[in-house]
Specification:
Blueprint: H1 2-16, H2 18-21, H3 25-28, H4 37-50, E1 54-61, E2 67-73, E3 85-91, H5 98-111, E4 123-128, H6 133-138, H7 159-171, E5 175-182, H8 187-192, E6 194-196, E7 200-204, H9 212-232, E8 237-239, E9 251-252, H10 261-266, E10 271-278, H11 288-308, H12 310-325, E11 332-340, E12 346-352, E13 358-363, E14 366-367, E15 369-377, E16 381-385, H13 389-397, E17 411-426, E18 429-440, E19 450-454, H14 460-467, E20 489-490, E21 494-498
Parallel strand pairs: 3-4, 3-5, 5-10, 7-8, 9-14
Antiparallel strand pairs: 1-2, 2-4, 6-12, 7-10, 11-15, 12-13, 16-19, 16-21, 17-18, 17-20, 17-21
Helix pairs in contact: 5-11, 9-11
Length: about 500
């Protein structure tokens, strides 16, 4: 009996002493040193070995062949229980934004404590703590190919973003969040005399092609809830507000472009967010404990909100995705939009450089709404010339399956004519804005000459925004695909529409 009791105690002791034995690397350094790639790798494997809730997957590799890890938490086999809701959080796309990674590792440690097991009765949770290990090791924003990963989610040329999207496509998560840092320390703000000072800011989806019902729930329910959750835990928070300073530059909410981590998943009618913590002023380890714990708290708050609203979110996402795959989503899609005012006033919390105290400033030029300036009817799909291997390769990276096109007589084929190339301002950047006309394409379409991509799929709205020539978010706005537009002549991608 005594021997049996000793054996039981031996088995139980590691569970009781878990949090002391497996502190996150940041804790072990007394919050004085950011976690290296090797420390991260060793730590998550140690966690994996200690818990039946956690499995570690390698979802891809960086440019320099470092493993990209996904930590999957589930009380059952991950992704197999259809009654659960799937949540995906990923951090450190930008290598010099360290607190997201550190917060993610603190969260992983906390989630494996017995008192938090209840979350995984309703949630299957995936956490990628570090998307850009090469950038992190050099403490540089971009990856080893000098690419900003958070501007690469449409064209998907980088191994890190390709891995992230392949992982999303495998499980089709209903909820996602992309974790970053923001810098409030620009010279224009110093001249203005104030700077932003929120520990955590949170942004929702803003593209008009994302389900209006999803955007409504995000803005009217999740956003006030998560800001209160953070404030109640002594982390100052505010809605993500790029731009400014006030009276120098307008202030808006997040971009409506679909090339970032939040919007590229949100365009698939996902309940999707961006979280940005404030970074250090002079040193990336400055105030690192508070920054990392704030990021962790925001991620934890997302899980709590989803746990409390699982059925509502899951049903909403399923309904709105069904509209995409059945081809019943909006007949018109905005391919050009702008940030505009809507009569609402903004009082933004700032820190005064003069007094060193928190202040509230009224913003006169506040543009919280996104308004369409050019809509296009959504086609059944697009015919891509077989010799356009650049578009074929893009479609493969996006996991779009080309299919043969059989015209049963119910469809007509349209071709754009490019009359001239103008330009349009998009959030301070100048992009091409072709003047186009549409004509009937009367040449018979042969299978060997074209492949067909249907818009009746989860990525249907993304496909349209990518391939329409007047889209200010399209492939043609990237240097790699600039040849799609010519100063005059025919646009190579054909539209298939119902008669």
């Amino acid at each position: 009996m005594k021997a049996a009791l000793t054996a039981i105690l031996f088995l139980v002791l590691p569970i009781f002493s878990f949090s002391q034995q497996l502190d996150a690397p940041l804790k072990k350094s007394n919050f004085k040193k950011v976690t290296s790639y090797s420390e991260l790798s060793n730590y998550i494997h140690e966690l994996d070995a200690q818990s039946d809730l956690l499995n570690v997957q390698i979802i891809g590799h960086s440019v320099k062949k470092r493993d990209l890890y996904a930590l999957t938490f589930s009380s059952t086999e991950f992704g197999k229980d259809s009654s659960k809701i799937k949540v995906f959080v990923f951090a450190q796309q930008h290598g010099n934004e360290q607190s997201g990674k550190e917060g993610a590792l603190l969260l992983a440690e906390a989630l494996l404590k017995p008192e938090n097991r209840y979350l995984f009765e309703k949630i299957d949770f995936a956490l990628v703590p570090q998307v850009n290990p090469d950038g992190s090791e050099a403490n540089k924003r971009r990856n080893a190919n000098d690419m900003d990963l958070n501007r690469n989610h449409l064209i998907l040329t980088e191994p890190e973003t390709m891995a992230l999207h392949a992982f999303f496509d495998k499980y089709l998560f209903e909820v996602t969040m992309d974790v970053h840092e923001y810098s409030p320390y620009g010279e224009e703000w110093k001249k203005y005399g104030y700077r932003k000072n929120s520990d955590i800011t949170v942004g929702t989806t803003t593209n008009l092609a994302v389900s209006g019902e999803i955007r409504k729930l995000s803005n009217e329910d999740y956003l006030p809830n998560i800001l209160k959750y953070l404030n109640d835990r002594k982390f100052s928070s505010f809605e993500y507000c790029p731009g400014g300073p006030p009276d120098v530059e307008y202030i808006r909410h997040s971009t409506f472009d679909i090339n970032d981590g939040r919007q590229s998943l949100g365009i698939q009618n996902t309940f999707s967010f961006i979280q940005e913590g404030m970074n250090g002023k002079d040193d990336f380890i400055e105030n690192l404990r508070h920054r990392a714990e704030g990021q962790m708290t925001g991620m934890r708050g997302l899980l709590e909100y989803v746990n409390n609203n699982k059925d509502k979110i899951k049903r909403l996402v399923a309904d709105e995705r069904l509209k995409l795959v059945s081809g019943l989503s909006s007949e018109e899609i905005s391919v050009q939009s702008e940030h505009v005012g809507n009569g609402n006033k903004l009082q933004i919390p700032l820190l005064s450089y003069f007094s060193g105290t928190d202040s509230v400033v009224n913003v006169n030029d506040y543009r919280p709404a996104v308004k369409s300036v050019y809509n296009v009817n959504k086609p059944v799909g697009y015919l891509i010339p077989s010799d356009r291997q650049d578009i074929a390769a893009w479609a493969a990276r996006q996991s779009l399956t080309p299919t043969p096109f059989k015209n049963t007589g119910d469809y007509k084929i349209e071709q754009y004519m490019i009359n001239r190339i103008d330009s349009i301002d998009f959030e301070g950047d100048i992009v091409a804005n072709p003047d186009v006309s549409v004509r009937k394409f009367s040449i018979p379409v042969k299978d060997q000459d074209y492949f067909f991509i249907s818009t009746a799929q989860l990525k249907g709205n993304m496909i349209m925004l990518a391939l329409e020539p007047k889209s200010m978010l399209g492939l043609a706005t990237y240097a790699k695909y600039a040849g799609l537009l010519a100063s005059w002549g025919s646009y190579p991608v054909l539209r298939v529409v119902k008669k």
